[in-house]
Amino acid sequence: MTHDTTELYTALDRWIDAHFDEEVNFLRSVVQVPTDTPPGNNAPHAERTAMLLADLGMTAEQHAVPAEAVRQAGMESITNLIVRRQYGEGGRVLALNAHGDVVPPGDGWTYPPYGGEVHDGKLYGRASAVSKSDFATYVFAVRALEAIGAPLAGRIELHFTYDEEFGGELGPGWLLREGLTRPDLAIAAGFSYQIVTAHNGCVQLEVTIEGKSGHAAVPTSGVDALAAAVKIMNRLYALNDQYKSVCSSVPGISHPYLNIGLIQGGTNTNVIPGKVVLKMDRRMIPEEDPAQVEAELNATIKAAAADLTGIRVGIRRILFARSLRPLPGNAALVSSLQRHGQALFGEAIPAVGTPLYADARLYCEAGVPVVLYGAGPRTVEESRAKQNDEHLDLEDLRRATKVIARTCLDLMLEK
């Protein structure tokens, strides 16, 4: 690291400090536009974000996903954004990706979920931590980079996408499949106190158990779908106990697990339930084969119901997200982020795996080395991500923006 580079880092930090109130206001603006998914009407947020970017002198390409594909995915509208910032000839193409779709806010908020209010140094609102925070991180890191006049090469692309909650296939996956982008490296929204290099995969299934409704006073008049569902669930929970002995070698990831998160069925207390629907989520560690995992689940469910007279079972895949595994080319990202993270946060920034799954994996599947790093949350529990009172520590936003800006400088500085 030369003396000149050190001065450039200092210039980046000073620019971010001088424009930090502007960055906070930008984040408030993107939090204040709802993007509840479901129902998934996300195009208005993309349009608002494009306007905010235009005010900053950035042109956002608006790529609307075809309506039929969006409808089949269970959403209403998706417009993904790409901002391309071209510098000198040669060099890398670096993508910075954050998602704007969020789970609905639910009840019990101290402050309005779409207010973007700041209290005691924290900004409250749905997606303030995951991951509209990194709309601001990435935009202002790039603005700082361009403001200091350093000799740059290559291109930075901002990818703001709207399908992470439903798996990402119509977000980054769609941009990559359509040939709208092909970066050399990517950083996706993440955590200010760690760099995520691997994450779990996930398969979600909908299991429909059908019997025959009947009067509860005459048990032989029906075939109890709920009793069959209980037998299936017991088999699945037994399988879940076995997973505890299957350990991942990736730091931050423990073992596979299964969750039955939704049960629907029956018509009334005096009616034998003729139909029950289960929705389940199976998290896969990076070492597992996703196809084998799904096949095992299907076999377990069918075997549990095989000897049940009058019971029919249907299985439908809802989500199939592969694990994120580190590609060799991510070393430049990890080393730079760790060095600047330690300098700015005052502690070592680990490179770990996470039990979550994210659409960052889609860059990896396209052969693009990717890591997750951004303003927040420090931890999902601390930020209350996907709960009421989700919030972001604004000092984490400030420091993470500096880390990203410095890393962009390292990667884009003309050689």
Characterization of this structure:
The strands form five sheets. The chain has a six-stranded mixed β-sheet. Strands 11-13-9-14 form a four-stranded antiparallel β-sheet, with helices on one face. The protein has helices spanning 3-18, 20-31, 43-55, 67-72, 133-147, 172-177, 225-243, 290-305, 331-345, 361-365, 380-383, 394-412; strands spanning 61-64, 79-86, 88-99, 118-119, 122-124, 153-161, 185-188, 195-199, 201-210, 214-215, 257-265, 271-272, 275-284, 312-321, 351-354, 370-372, 391-393. The relative contact order is 0.19. Strand 4 and strand 5 (122-124) form a beta hairpin. 35% of the residues lie in helices and 24% in strands. With 415 residues, the protein is an alpha/beta fold.
Characteristics:
elongated; alpha/beta; six-stranded mixed sheet; 415 residues; four-stranded antiparallel sheet
Helix-residue proportion: 25-40%
Q: Structural class of the secondary structure composition?
A: alpha/beta
Quaternary organisation: single chain
The biggest beta sheet reads: 6 strands, mixed
Question: How does the SSE layout of this entry go?
Answer:
Layout: H1 3-18, H2 20-31, H3 43-55, E1 61-64, H4 67-72, E2 79-86, E3 88-99, E4 118-119, E5 122-124, H5 133-147, E6 153-161, H6 172-177, E7 185-188, E8 195-199, E9 201-210, E10 214-215, H7 225-243, E11 257-265, E12 271-272, E13 275-284, H8 290-305, E14 312-321, H9 331-345, E15 351-354, H10 361-365, E16 370-372, H11 380-383, E17 391-393, H12 394-412
Parallel strand pairs: 3-6, 3-7, 7-16, 8-15
Antiparallel strand pairs: 1-2, 2-6, 4-5, 5-17, 9-13, 9-14, 10-12, 11-13
Helix pairs in contact: 1-5, 1-12, 2-5, 5-12, 7-8, 9-12
